Amino acid sequence: MPYLGAGVHVIIALFFAVHAVRSGQNNYWLFVLLAFPFLGSVVYFFAIYLPNSRLQRHARSLASNAVKALDPTREVRDAQAAYDYSPTAQNEIRLAQALLANGQAEPAFRHFEASMKGPFANDLEIRWGAAQAAYQASQPQQALQQLRVIAQADVHFRAEAVGLLVAKAYAQLGDQEMARKSFDFARQHSGSFDVMAEYAIWAAGQGDWQTANALQAELNKAMTPWSGQQRQLNREMLQRLKTAFATQPK
């Protein structure tokens, strides 16, 4: 039995040693794990493995979401206070991002615009934030303008998300022909669940049930292997699809 226990310690230590190598940890961890299998494994688990594990990240995510649920405007208040105290470009960007996350699209867009007049004029992440804020503020022309600049600067930057927002911005603008072409382009170059879902929702809204139903069939096929957790993570999109297809004539 003592030999069995020692063997388990060594196996666990070897598992963590492989993890250390694959995750690029310092080489001294290999010495610690192999020289002191039991104690080294315990130390490695709490010092390295647990903080970087999915469980730990999930716990942090749950904690963050709980804070947001209890006090949804906290980050906006903190960002506003930081900007009022020191109106730097960095603090303005933080405020813009906080406002956008809180659904305050119009002031978010103003702050994104202002922040792009300084040292962050060529920052594509800031311009992407401005495009999202403009779209959410029902300013599709402004959104498309930001998206064109992004595409000209780097056609690969957030390609799927940018292509999808282009299609949605054209739809919001009322140019449904360009919206369809943009949705088709996004689908051909991505074909992700989100792209097909947004395309299906748009097609249903246009009364194009042939396209909508064809996309729905593909979506149902893609969802076949989904777990309950995956459906829960995508519940908002699934509800939007259900609402869109509820208007289909019998």
Structure explained in plain terms:
- Mean pLDDT is 83; it is low at 1-5.
- This protein is an all-alpha fold and 250 residues long.
- The chain is 78% helix and 0% strand.
Concise description?
The chain has 15 helices and no strands.
Q: What would CATH call the class of the domain at 76-157?
A: Mainly Alpha
| CA-based shape | extended
CATH architecture of the domain at 76-157: Alpha Horseshoe
Helix and strand element order: HHHHHHHHHHHHHHH
Distance between the ends: 70 Å
What profile does the largest beta sheet have? none
CATH level 3 topology of the domain at 76-157: Serine Threonine Protein Phosphatase 5, Tetratricopeptide repeat
- What share of the residues lie within helices? over 70%
Q: Provide the gyration radius in Å.
A: 24 Å
Structural class: mainly alpha
Q: Considering the protein shown, what is the CATH homologous superfamily of the domain at 76-157?
A: Tetratricopeptide repeat domain
Keywords:
250 residues, Tetratricopeptide repeat protein, mainly alpha, TPR-like_helical_dom_sf, transmembrane, membrane, disordered N terminus, transmembrane helix
Secondary-structure blueprint:
Layout: H1 2-22, H2 28-35, H3 37-49, H4 54-70, H5 74-85, H6 89-101, H7 105-115, H8 124-136, H9 140-153, H10 159-173, H11 176-189, H12 193-205, H13 209-223, H14 228-233, H15 235-245
